[in-house]
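[[Local backbone shapes]]
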Amino acid sequence: MFYASRFLRTTRPAMVGPDVYWVKTVLAELGFLSSEAAQSWEFDTQTEAAVLRFQRIHGLPVDGIVGPTTFRTLWTLGGQKALFGANSESPITGSKYPTVLLHIDGGRCLLHHFAENRLLRSYPVALGSPNTPTPNGYWHIISREVNPGGFFGSRWLGLSIPFGAYGIHGTDNPQAIGKRATHGCVYMLNSHIEELFAQVQPGTPVLVTGPAAAGRMLEVGVLPGRDIQRVQTILQTLQIFSGRPDGRYTPATAAAVASFQKMEGLHISGKVCPYTYEALEKSYDIAVGAVRP
């Protein structure tokens, strides 16, 4: 498993959404994009050029793709300032006990809406898949958008997760509700997110709980597992691994990982560390054309 919201990049048709808008807003705040260009929600070639410049200046992998490492750097350098202004206090730094709380129960795929210590309603939701789970933690609402459209349905509530553009939003795929099937975002039925949206403001805390998803270093000798099977499946999709994805980290798996690391310009170790995890998931998304949040 690996924590990653969708990898923002140039595609045909172009990726569009509030996550793209957030990235462009921060790039504009940091001087890599004009304020006029930042008004669009489309990840166009101008956005890609700005991302490339940002990555080059800050010593990141220069690929024009916004994944967890680039997201984290954007958030650290300009995310909060872009969202809340240079002189305004962030609504997520207050010490008052919250009167409204959203609790996302990952064990049951439910979102509980509390107000004044009372449960008002519970909504069924879709959460991140086992490969790209919704991050557990104590987050806050940082943005609200009406009618983002497409994959995002009728409403968007952005979350303060610093390593990706995660949000609670509507969907064009209601069949996913109740399942772990997303790229980490939280899907709600459009009628439900519209009801909730009217009662939630920036700064509202969001508690995400559920089965803990912890990555591990993969190397020859580790116990078999689904994480190894996932790596083997990706390498097979990329036509680097010809064996059967059986979840065992064999010398053949290590050799395939080393070949992938060489192709990506990573340190060649034959072991899967966080940097290799990110590169694998990014390459897989590109290979299969994954663009859903």
